[in-house]
Structure formats: C-alpha cells, structure tokens
Amino acid sequence: VVYALFLRISIINVVLASVALSLLFQNLALRFWSEDARAYPAMFSERPILLAGFRFVPQDWATIAAAVLCVLGFQLLFKRTRTGLAMRAVMLDRQTASLMGINVYRTIGNTFGVSAALGAAAGVLVAPSDPDPVQHGVHSNEGLRRRLPGRHLLDSGGDRRRAHHRRDRGPGRCLRLGHVPRAIVYAILIGALLFRPEGLLGCR
Amino acid sequence: MTAKVLRGLGLAALVLVPLAVRDAYTMRVINVIGINCLLALGLNRVIGVAGQLNAGQAGFYAVGAYTAGVLAVRFGTPFWVTVPLAGLASTVLAVVIGPVLRLRGVFLAVATLALGEIVRIVINNWVPVTNGPNGIPGIPFQKLGPVVFDTDQRYYYLVLSCVLVCYVAIARMADSRVGRAMYAIRDNQDAAEVMGIHVIRYKMMAFAVSGAFAGVAGALLAHLQTYISPETFTFLTSIDIIFMVVIGGLGSVPGSIVGAVVVTVGPEWLRFLKDYRLIVYALIILGVLVFAPAGLYGLAGRLRRRLWPVLARGAA
Fold it and tell me: Which residue stretches of A51-129 are H helix?
C-alpha cells in the first residue's frame, strides 16, 4: 500500500522508499523483539527418516513442498486470474494496458503486495532450515543478511569479536576464500544482464 | 549584483567556519559533509543529469580510498599525488565498465550494484595489498610543504577547496554541450541517439566524472580518518549517496549540497532519540520522498515561488 504512493513519481524513489521501509521495519523489529536472535521452531520434525535406504528430513521436504506450492500458485495467478493477466499486460506495455482499462498503478501495487507476501513466506520457510548454528533462528537483521551475499563479512563487520573468533576457527579461510565465488556470481549476473536481460527462462 | 554579493558572503562564511567551530566532533562532521558533497555532486551527474541509476557508487569511493591508502602507507606517496591518482583510478574503473552502460534503468542499477559489491569483495579478499577485512591503518596526515593537515580545522580547508573546485566544474558543465547532451539522454535516450548524440560515450563521461569525484572523496576520507576498511563501502553506503542526491533534488547542483548536509547531519541530530533514531530517520526519508519528490531544494524553490508574490503584495 505504501509503495503506491511512490509509483507515480519515479523508479529511483521506489527503490529508495523500499530501502527506507526496510530500515523502518528492521528497526521496529529491533525495538519490539530486541536484537537477540530468536529460536524459530521447526514446523515439522528435523529428525531424519530412513525410507528405502534414503534419509529424509521432513522439515526440508516441507520447505521444498511449500516452495513448489508457491510456484504453482504463481502460475495459476498469472495464467488463470484477471489480476495475473493484468500484471502481465502491464509488464508487456503499460500504456496499452492502460488503454484497455487496466488500472496500471493498482496492478503494480498488487505486484508489490504479492512480492511482500512471498518475502514473508520465504522468511517463515527459511528460518527453521538455516544451517548456520551461530545465526540459527530469526534475527532483526534477517532481511539484510539474506539480501547481501557477503553475509559472514557483514557479520564480522558488525562485531569484531566474532570476526576474530571466526579467524581462530578457520585461519581466516572464510574471509579470504569464501567470498570469491560471490564475486563470480555477481560477474555472471552482470553477464546475464548484458546478454540475456530477460532471464534464462524469460520471453524475448 | 546581489547574487554575487551573497555568494561572496557565503564563501567568506565558509572560510571562517574553523575559526568559529572549536569542537573536534562538529568539525569532523563538517569535514564528512564536505566529502559527502563530492560524492553527491558526482552521483548527481549520473542520476540527475544523465538519468542513469548507479547503485554502486561505493565501489568507486572504495577504489579511491584504497588507492590513496595503499600508495600513502606502502610507498610513502605524498597526498598531492595520491588524491589525483585516486580520482584517476576510479575514473579508469568507470571507463572499464563501459560495456555495462548499454543497460538501462533497473538493469543498470542491478549491474552497478553488483560491480560495487565485486569491488568490496575483491578488497576484502586481496589481503596482500589491501590487508583484507582488517583494513589499512596508519594512513599519514596530509602535508603541503611545512603545513601538516593534522587537525580537522586545518583539514577543512583542503576539503573545502576540493568541494569548491568540483562544484564550479559541475555547475559549468551543466550548461555546456556535454551537459545538454546528458540532459537529452535523460529525457529520451532513443531520441537523443537519433539526434546524433553518442549515448554510450556521454554515459561513460558521466560515470567517469562521477567516478573521479568519488575517488577524490575516498582519498580525502582515507587521509582524514587515517584508517579505512571494506565495511565503510557497503551497498548501504551507495544507497546513502543516492539518498543525498534524491533528497537534495535530482539534477540540481546546490541540491546535492543540501542533500549531503541533510543525510550526514540528520542521523547525528536525531541521536537524542536514542533507539528510535533510525525509525524517525526512515520516516523522515519517506516523508521527503512523498511530499517533496523534487527534493528539498525543489521544495524550497516551489515555496519561494508561491510565497514571494504573497509577501510582495503584503509589503506593498
């Protein structure tokens, strides 16, 4: 709803508004739930089950199933509903969509709403399956941790004691080598933007 | 005539600032405002004038800071060499990323964001040169002959000189042929190309100018703080610089200064709110984005245009 205020202005304002909102929500979370990480109970058992010789962790499978359901839900939304069709029309040509009677700003607002709901769903799904024992659970900084790939560096930047602790554990390996692949990922991202900006499965 | 007198008085006031401010903390904040002014002036050239969303300004800033830091600490290079070289290094980076400038809008923003992060990751991992996450301590104070800029009061004159030179350069560029070409690209890139403007070249020029300013700003920061580390140059630093440009007013040269002052001083002034500081700060930013989309400088101009006739009528 808040984004709707910025949509008529410019894309830069939308980007900045999203950062300001992120700052706002993060600090509100900090005020209400303190800065300590909170243990997030798994919805399903984390005890592995042996099935036909394979080990299955119900929680992991539930996460994957929920993600698949979200993708299927999206397919249905885009292909079978008027709202989804309106979103696709606005994506292809905003002016033509407007001429066809689609309320462009409301439709874009809807996409932000759907995106926010998905973000919330991802937060619920990812917290119990976080493999990092130090950061297990949810944290007021969760969004930033997920958004920026240099997560360990971000953590070490905020807390020097923990950075030294990490170096003690693994002679600085995570700091020296662990993030080079991130740089490669970013380089691939730039290449993809240059040569296939519509994405791997996007329509030309 | 009045404008010239006002400008002269303003300049005199700026020169006298260190004599009036004896508090080291306030003086440090003023120096940081100056450095941020350079960053905002440079980025405004890219976003406000050329209309290209650069979300990786912190990368250019980092390259400038580390160039100056490494040269000064490892080779004992004097500052009058490190500062121009820092600007040059960032300019070279801006030119090297030329192919990325084919992109537009959000795609360019994502690509520049990725570039900024690549720079930070490289700095973090290139330990033999950059000292990795521990940063570079012991960057020497700047010297010019017998004068050592070892206090914030003295350093202020260096920062002020750089800001004034960059301000005049940017203001003069706005009305030049290059400036007009950039405005044309911002308004309609396709139409500008049809009219014979070499879009990529001018975009690269905007990025090079912006990169040079960021490089100089980085060098000034390195010598001011005498310590730099990669955590200063995160994605959020780039966002802060964009805030400065947008809050001041896109495309406005004085607006960049206003934005740099507001974004630097705002969080400091709000310290009395303690834990609620960043909540209020975020709300203020949202308020500015909603109620003054043309920036605070644009808002001041609008108010002046509306109130001036009323005041003039009242006086008559």
Answer: 58-80, 82-92, 94-99, 104-126
B98-131 confidence digits (pLDDT tens)? 888 888 888 888 899 999 999 999 999 999 999 9
- Residue in A with minimal Cα distance to B232: A157
Measured between CB atoms, does A7 come within 8 Å of chain B? Answer: no
Distance CA A47, CA A44 (A): 9
Asked if B21 contacts B30 with a C-beta cutoff of 8 angstroms, the reply is yes
Q: How far is CA A113 from CA A1, A79, B107, in A?
A: 7, 18, 22
- Residue A108 forms contact with B (CB below 8 Å): no
Reference B256, options B18, B37, B56; nearest CA is B37
Q: Is B115 close to A153, i.e. CB distance below 8 A?
A: no
Q: Hey, what long-range contacts does A71-80 have (CB within 8 A, 24 or more apart)?
A: A77/A114
A1 CB within 8 Å of a chain B CB = no
Q: Does B230 touch chain A (CB under 8 A)?
A: yes
Tell whether the model's pLDDT for residue B160 goes beyond 60. yes
Q: Structure pTM?
A: 0.80
What is the 8-class DSSP label of residue B139? P
Assign B143 to helix, strand or coil.
strand
Is ipTM > 0.90 here? no
CB contact under 8 A, A16 and B242: yes
Give the pLDDT score at A130: 61
Say yes or no for a CB contact (<8 Å) between A153 and B133. yes
The number of residues making up chain B comes to: 316
Token pair for B95:
């030119």
Strand partners, B148: B143
Q: Between the CA of residue A138 and those of A37, A41, A45, A74, A129, what are the distances in Å?
A: 6, 10, 18, 26, 11
Q: Do the Cβ atoms of B233 and B248 come closer than 8 Å? A: no
Element (H, E) at A200: none
Min Cα distance A146 → chain B (Å) is 13
From first CA to last CA, the distance across chain A in angstroms is 31
Any chain B CB within 8 A of the CB of A188? Answer: no
Q: How many CB atoms lie within 10 A of CB B311?
A: 10
B289/A197 touch (CB, cutoff 8 Å), yes or no: no
Cβ <8 Å between A21 and B110: no
Contact B228, B69 (CB under 8 A): yes
CB A5 within 8 A of CB B290: yes
Q: How far is CA B93 from CA B19, B88, B200, in A?
A: 39, 9, 15
**Exposed/middle/buried for residue A201 (C-beta within 10 Å: 0-12, 13-18, 19+):** exposed
